[in-house]
Design a protein that fits this description.
Layout lengths: L1 H22 L11 H11 L5 E6 L5 E6 L4 E7 L2 E6 L5 E5 L2 E5 L7 E5 L3 H8 L6
Antiparallel strand pairs: 1-2, 2-3, 3-4, 5-6, 6-7
Amino acid sequence: MAMALQLGGSLIAILILAWLAHRLDLGGDVRIRDDSHARALADDAISGFDAREVAIDKGRIGALLRDADGRVLLIRRHGAHFAARLLDNHIHTRLDQTRLTLATSDRRFGSITLDLGEAAQQWAASLRHVGA
C-alpha cells in the first residue's frame, strides 16, 4: 500500500512538473525564424553588429552574418539558446555541394554544418578573406 502511494505521488509530481514546463514554454525546439531574428541575435551577441548580409541554414539552426566592415558572425543553436562567434583567419571550412561546415578557433564552440543552398559556394569563397 505504501509503495503504491509513493508511486502515485511520484507520478503526480512528474505530471505537474511537465505541465509547468509546458506552461512556461521551457525547452522546445528553438529555430532562427527569419533574417530579422538572425540580426537581433547578432546584435545580442555583439552590441551594434549591423548585419548587411544574412544566410540562414535551411533547418534554421544556424546563420552567417556579415557587417559593413567585413566581419562575419557565426550563430548556432546551443540547447534552447543561441551562441555566436566572430570568425577569424583560423576558421576551418569545408564545402560539400550546398552544405558548408565551419569550425572556429574556439574548440569549445565546436563545428557546425549549415545547409545554405545556392549561397554556400559564395559564402565559402568569401570566407577565405576573413581576418586577412
